[in-house]
Amino acid sequence: MARKRAATKPTAKRAPARAAARRPSSLLDTRIVYCGDCLDQLAKLPDGCVDLIYIDPPFNSNRNYEVFWGETKEKRAFEDRHASTQAYIDYMRPRCVELARVLKKTGSFYYHCDWHASHYVKVMLDQIMGENNFQNEIVWKRSTAHSDARQGSKHYGRLHDVLLFYTGGSRVFTWNHIYTPLDPAYVQSHYRRMDEHGRRFMWDNLTGPGGAAKGNPYYEVLGVRNYWRYSRERMEQLIKEGKVAIPPKGRTPRLKRYLDESKGLPLQSVWDDLPPINSQAKESLGYPTQKPLALLERIINASSNRNDIVLDAFCGCGTALVAAQNLDRQWIGIDISPTACRVMAKRLRDVCKLREDEDLWRAGRGFVVRDLPWTEEKLRQMPPFEFENWAVIALGGIPNKTQVGDMGIDGRIFPVAAAPKRRGADTGELEFMDHWYPIQVKQKDKVGRPDIDAFEAVMTREDRTKGFFVSFDYTDGALREIDAFFRKSGKAIIALTVHEILEEEIARKLA
What is the pLDDT of residues 174-216, one digit of tens each? Predict the structure, then answer.
């Protein structure tokens, strides 16, 4: 049976900073953002060390996003990379095995997914976590209306995400009751009566369901003998408080439940009271699948306690980390994207007022980002094809699979306007419209005019209005040619340096 704790509100205020200085485990460092594949990073953690895991991995929707980040309006591209449902499950299975390993027996696990693969994920998690450890399928209504149910479509509007909630194996796990406000219509229909002090109340049943078979006590109350819900001592106390009486026109004692003493409705498995992030929301970073802070605070409040360790292994823009920090939990974040790791670090600094500082972190007051992979010096030493892949992925593009025969294109960026137009005959997955930008990468100290001339030929041949070029630097002649090409053809070549990518200085060129 779950361990019951005091009720918590869905959203809590930030706890005192000094509380975060307590070290929860001698085996585990917290307040760290790890950059890398969670399969590799999780392998470094000991067994049974985490109290709560929440993940919101990329959905199996084969989409590509071009978005703006934060106040700088820095344009980024993110893609869900999986070609099929089977590929998605094959990718997630070993990672979920590792997550199950690091979860405490008393811990909780939440997997956030949408309609594309939630049923396949449930089967996978039953196998890994144990079907008896499945607690809930939570439905989060993330939208009030959706354009995919417009006139002419042949399906219902897809308005919700699914959160699959498992526990770690022990019958005793952390569970804090959360209550939501009573529906006004329910209050009006049930709390219709007023006492002499003007307090609203309703009459509730006191008889013990199941009688003697359920172990309910049998005794006399206000002249009526019956099986009751409460012990004789508790019943006498309620009578003394004026909360037990025989209603007018009634024959059996009943309980007065007062509206002002109600905690509300215990949280159910359909969450329709937490709106999604829109472009006007104060917390919006422009991340395409950003979840509201209140959603993560609800999960963390329900399934962890102060100073517990919260892990998000696909933490994106870091909402779970911010929620954990605000609620005085320890936390660990992992994401494969260096850009996402930098964005969440900025968010922790700006929103939580945490310092990104090694010395402060060792003293229990700051945080650190580990394993951010590249420096200019390191990138110069990489094999050319690996360098090309790094540059293309850093821009949010899709690199070519082959090293030869690329026709002058090292990768492609699909903007958000590249909506799916048909289903592939072989894979059954969505394909993109013919709307993409080429990326050319040169591992050179300075790209010259001949390199730009060759890329101009590619853009002309492919009839692209925009292209991206990445190198360490450019000659004056190359930059003049880029300007002349735009004035002559209207086609824009965005010349980016490695330094600009590493230092997040590309907003002015991409906005």
Answer: 999 999 999 899 999 999 999 999 999 999 999 998 888 889 9
Residue pair 101/94 in contact by the 8 Å Cβ criterion: no
The class that CATH gives domain 3-145+156-179+266-370 is alpha beta
Q: Decide if 375 contacts 502 (C-beta within 8 A).
A: yes
Overall residue count recorded for the chain in this entry = 511
The predicted structure's pLDDT at residue 30 = 96
pLDDT score of 408 = 82
Q: How would CATH label the architecture of 376-510?
A: 3-Layer(aba) Sandwich (3.40)
User: Does the pLDDT value for residue 221 go beyond 80?
Assistant: yes
Helices (H), 154-220: 184-190
Using CA of residue 346, residue 350, residue 351, residue 356, what is the dihedral sign? positive
Where is average pLDDT lowest: 66-75, 194-203, 229-238? Answer: 66-75
Q: What is the mean pLDDT of residues 308-312?
A: 97
pLDDT at 1 over 80: no
CA distances from 394 to 76, 217, 282, 429, 468 (A): 9, 69, 27, 25, 12
Q: Contacts for 103-106 with beta carbons within 8 Å, 24 or more apart?
A: 103/48, 103/50, 103/53, 103/168, 104/48, 104/49, 104/50, 104/51, 104/168, 105/48, 105/168, 105/169, 105/170, 106/51, 106/167, 106/168, 106/170, 106/172, 106/173, 106/174
3-state secondary structure (DSSP) of residue 61:
coil
Query: Is residue 137 pLDDT above 90, yes or no?
Result: yes
Q: How far is CA 245 from CA 238, 239, 240, 241, 256, in A?
A: 9, 7, 10, 10, 8
Residue 345: partners with Cβ closer than 8 Å, 6 or more residues away: 33, 318, 356, 367, 369
C-alpha distances in Å from residue 316, one per residue of 204, 425, 434 = 48, 32, 28
Residues of the chain with CATH 3.40.50.150: 3-145+156-179+266-370
